[in-house]
Design goal:
Structural class: mainly alpha
Helix content: 55-70%
Number of strands: 0
Strand content: under 5%
Radius of gyration: 21 Å
Distance between the termini: 39 Å
Length: about 260
């Protein structure tokens, strides 16, 4: 297949394919006698793998290492791995849609008030912290409410106890405001900004201390892939902070 067909198959632009070639991430086949480059199924699978790795937050240099290792692997093994990843994504989406369908049904029947999807403890915590007005703070509040509303009963009970405990801690508000301020400072920064790594590590440490040890709603489910759909509204550098923090937590908790 030609480069346009390859790009269309994976759902990217030809510019993206050429960019991966220039960065050495995706091997570029030699030109044939007719002047065109011909791509095969292994090239398509490699391109799909790169896109998925980038979505998970890996840098292009990290993705390049993975793709290089794939060259020595059997094609069937790679396909099995991709299929397993897609199955996990499908399962997570089904669970979210089921919960959202339940909430929609309750909302349409008038059973939900404007804040009834969030636990009283979370709302009290948000009032106690007095979340500042900023894009990062607004995103965090909305995500907390969404996750709290979608949690199952046992997880929600643990989360409610956690939020009640956090609200009673006089240092939580100050630390939270400092995190929001530092995230806001990254609004116009690139994904390679040197402030990203330190802030991600501090957020990961903070989350392990307060959201996991105290039995938060995700103490057993820190999946780096699951956070991706929620990062679109953040600036690239801000999203990278959250992405790296979740990956650090997942690596240390087995999530």
């Amino acid at each position: 297949m030609r480069i346009g067909e390859l790009a269309a198959l994976v759902g990217v632009s030809t510019r993206t394919v050429r960019h991966y070639h220039r960065q050495g991430v995706l091997p570029e086949p030699p030109r044939l006698a007719n002047g065109y480059r011909e791509y095969g199924m292994r090239d398509a699978i490699a391109l799909a793998r790169v896109r998925r790795l980038v979505e998970l937050g890996l840098s292009l240099s990290e993705a390049r290492d993975v793709i290089a290792e794939d060259r020595d692997r059997d094609l069937a093994d790679i396909l099995v791995e991709i299929d397993a990843d897609l199955a996990r994504q499908e399962h997570e989406i089904k669970l979210r849609r089921a919960r959202l369908a339940e909430l929609l049904s309750q909302a349409e029947s008038g059973a939900l008030g404007p804040d009834d999807t969030a636990s009283p403890e979370l709302l009290a915590f948000l009032r106690q912290v007095e979340v500042p007005t900023s894009k990062a703070a607004e995103w965090d509040r909305d995500l907390l409410v969404l996750m709290d509303s979608m949690a199952t009963a046992p997880d929600r009970e643990r989360a409610s106890a956690m939020f009640a405990g956090l609200a009673a801690d006089p240092e939580i508000a100050a630390r939270g405001h400092a995190f929001y301020r530092r995230l806001d400072e990254l609004t116009d920064a690139g994904r390679d900004d040197p402030r990203i790594g330190p802030l991600a590590r501090e957020l990961a440490d903070y989350s392990r201390e307060h959201l996991i040890a105290e039995g938060g709603p995700h103490d057993h489910g820190w999946d780096p892939a699951a956070v991706e759909p929620f990062l679109d509204e953040l600036a690239p550098a801000q999203a990278e902070v959250i992405r790296q923090a979740v990956r650090l937590i997942a690596a240390q908790t087995g999530g």
